[in-house]
Design brief:
With 488 residues, this protein is an alpha/beta fold. It folds into 2 domains: 3-257 and 460-478, Aldehyde Dehydrogenase, Chain A, domain 1; 262-448, Aldehyde Dehydrogenase, Chain A, domain 2. It has helices spanning 3-8, 48-67, 70-86, 88-99, 103-123, 162-174, 188-200, 215-223, 237-249, 272-284, 301-316, 336-351, 383-386, 402-410, 425-434, and strands at 14-16, 19-21, 28-32, 39-44, 130-133, 139-147, 151-154, 178-181, 207-209, 230-234, 253-257, 262-266, 294-300, 355-358, 362-363, 369-370, 373-376, 393-399, 417-421, 439-442, 461-462, 475-483. The protein has a 7-stranded mixed beta sheet, with helices on both faces. The radius of gyration is 23 Å and the shape is globular. Bound molecules: nicotinamide-adenine-dinucleotide.
Amino acid sequence: MTLQDVIAGVPTGLLIGGEWRPSSDGATYDVENPATGEKLATLASATSADALAALDAAAGAQEGWARTPARVRAEILRKGFELVREHGEDLAQLMTAEMGKPLAEARGEVTYGNEFLRWFSEEASRIDGRFNASPEGNLRMLVRRKPVGPCLLITPWNFPLAMATRKVGPALAAGCTMILKPAHLTPLTSQLFAQLMVEAGVPAGVLNVVGGANPRAISGPLMADSRLRKVSFTGSTEVGIALLKQAADNVLRTSMELGGNAPFLVFADANLDKAVAGAVAAKMRNIGEACTAANRFLVQAEVADEFARRLAEALGALKVGNGAEAGTQVGPLVEAKARDKVLELVADATSRGARVLTGGHAIAGPGYFIEPTVLTGVTPEARVFTDEIFGPVAPIITFTDEDEAVRLANSTQYGLASYVYTQSISRALRIGERLDYGLLGLNAGVISNAAAPFGGVKQSGLGREGGAEGINEYTATQYVGFPDPWQE
Ligand code: NAD
């Protein structure tokens, strides 16, 4: 199918109560291709009234969905998994068109993202509880996990499918109804995904989708409504903090997957070939637009020049272009603002003495391209060291010993992903204990997996997605106590 055919099959409305409909005031917004600047589609832009209509539907469907047997919920998720696999090529084309990632990576995201549907279809019937006697013997104690209730799921633009399945999968499995609010830059993938889930048998009102150009108008009234019980957000730390403050007023359960500033540590005893290959993967996956992207390369002084030379050679050889074209390894950044911010960070680093080993410039448009870049001689004051870069720029900083490496790695408010390359097992384990990060790749540049608990510490967030932990985010524990039957 051509991209035009795929787009023609994507619903353009809001999914509320099982029906696709226009926004209540007729407002729309456009979706653009960042590789060409061309308009791809025009979608309905939800108003506050639409958001509340979606909550009416979700609240109305909550009890029925919670009482639906886990096996039935699991089968619907499994059917969703099969439909996503069947339509994988359409979803990949949409992601490349609206977000910019190379088609091969978009296909990889379909596989990765879809695993959350399969994993949580398997977890749905394993929500357990316990039953025991109180220590005094006077009570019997039943502990069970119930669905938390209607959820608001807000996703970012960088992984348009995986960030949705990572929330929708466990919410459905746990028996929660939901309102999905996709990012306005990349809503097409979510629209098609939602349609596939409806086709898979998700009942009306259980999954609602309200995208729009004004996210605050959608999330504000929802979060102030006591029928909403949870918000799960993936996005920037700045917006996450604002949402946490709003959530406090309604004492909502929250899951927050926020920004990162991942250190990538290379010790002198590392296998340098593997370290460079891991560095390319950890830096360049998704054009550097990943919360897990290696943001700071901390390299032991003895091997720093060699590592920098080899990394520059590898990054300099990557083919930049429209992700839809064969052979493209690096696509455009998602919008002009994102490209300009990355260029600003490079200029700031060089003004403080950093040296550009490769890249460093924008590539003429249309589209928001930037050359893969390696910087050496970066100082900890440079903004590339403190800020989330979200682009194909690799700053290299040297360290002399383990203590300095750990101090530099931990000197950030973020704590999502970290990477360590060393051949010493005891060093690897020691460093792991000292790093304040939710995720650690040991001699590995990509570690995301549906079966693993993904999430950060510090300002990188609260809660975990995926793994056995992921479903807990959508359940509330209820304790039922009753008298010892021997004393009745
Ligand atoms: P963003 O915070 O700008 O937007 C994320 C979502 O929130 C979008 O749907 C957006 O429309 C919505 N939003 C924006 N402002 C809002 C507001 N005031 N009220 C309510 N909703 C609002 O983030 P982004 O630019 O889409 O995504 C990039 C960020 O996401 C990066 O910081 C990245 O690290 C982070 N991220 C984190 C993870 C993780 O798992 N920790 C995964 C992917 C991305």
